[in-house]
TrEMBL record:
Topology within the bilayer: Multi-pass membrane protein
GO cellular component: plasma membrane
Main localization of the protein described in the UniProt heading: membrane
Annotated keywords: Cell membrane, Ion transport, Membrane, Potassium, Potassium transport, Transmembrane, Transmembrane helix, Transport
Superkingdom in the source lineage: Bacteria
Coiled coil residues, start to end: none
TM stretches of this protein: 24-42, 54-73, 85-109, 140-159, 202-226, 238-256, 304-336, 357-380, 416-436
Designated name of the protein: Ktr system potassium uptake protein B
Keyword match Nucleotide-binding: no
Location within or outside the cell: Cell membrane
GO molecular function terms listed in the Swiss-Prot or TrEMBL record: potassium:chloride symporter activity
Amino acid sequence: MDFSEAVEIKILHFGLRKLKPTQILVFGFAALILVGGILLNLPSASKSGQSIGFLNALFTSTSAVCVTGLVVVDTQTQFSTFGQIVIMCLIQMGGLGIMTMATLIFLLLGKKITLRERIVMQEALNQSTLSGLVKLTRHILLTTFIFEGIGAILLSIRFTQIYGISKGIYYGVFHAVSAFNNAGFDLIGGFKNFTPFVEDPIINGVIMGLIIFGGLGFTVIHDLLLKRNFKHLSLHSKVVITMTLLLLVSGFITFYCLEYSNLKTLGNLSPTGKILAAAFQSVTARTAGFNTLNLSDLTMPSKYFTIFLMFIGASPASTGGGIKTSTFAIIIMMIYTILASKEDVEIYQRRVPMDNIFKAVVIGVIALLLVFTSSFLLTITEKADFLSILFETTSAFGTVGLTLGITTELTSIGKIIIILTMFAGRVGPLTLAMALGSRINKAMIRFPEERILVG
């Protein structure tokens, strides 16, 4: 290494030391997206041997790293095996997170994790304490590879019966990684996703299982494995599990009832097929982006309900996006507390701290503003109807990947808007706001309090 290279590394190291943990996370995701875009723009990444265009490559890379699943070109027909493997790697790295992947490299190299790196890990994993972070990261990696491994084996067994051994195994691995990371990318081709397998119990069951566990959050899975008894779980785990079950069950009942007689969706399916399709739609709508039904054929109420589920999303420290199940639960309980004229927000006989409540409200408000702003801008740049645009932007923010068919028709400006929305949804609206904001010191002086009329 010559002197100039040494100076450049020193400057880079000094620059990183001055960054806040939130800024390191944001820049880390941005750098990964850029590298992915460059790789996917290579002629070797395309089946035709010609570049798909940098904006399309960047869009695909963002969608993969942000584990969204929105695509402007068909993954199976447009990308070569090299391009598809790049996408799968981006999904894996994006799903696990920048610091989890960095920790894996440090552990493999035998490098010590510094205090600053632990602080960034704490921010990345959304933890309240620094203790046990490296152990939790090891658990995250082990859990991920176990779930993906089991899913890959089960899917490979089914896919080999359809596509042959080599292609079946390849499809099994790709879709297991995509499902557990709630990405929604598929290799079925022709933008069909899993619609050809709407009544296949094995594919539906395995994909739903991977989506649910990937969306629960690594903290909850770790807590479940350690304590097992629901009564002994942390309040966070109890809230996440309760909200997940409520949303899954209510989603299934809603889709089943609304689509039961719709001949374009559930109407022509067998009784078992109706149950599978409604259940799959309930599971995938909050964060995954796979679909066994043509979403443009859904009834209007089902489309609006899907938007609602996509906005909520998955759970904290998971592979999914949205405002998160726990955030939604806190906001609902806060509303109940105000209406019931109670002083404290209480869940499972525990008081929720005020900073938790403020954070939940801020996340909800920023998310609404982000979706509204993105939708407003797309109404200017695109020719689609408002519902399709709202559906698209909510899907991008929630890193879901479901669409009513306008993704491939987006203008260049529209693609950039969706890229930014996906990015904001993946890193989190609050994390992004804190990264862009300046350091704020606690004020030494407190001003007098005065009420403002609201409502």
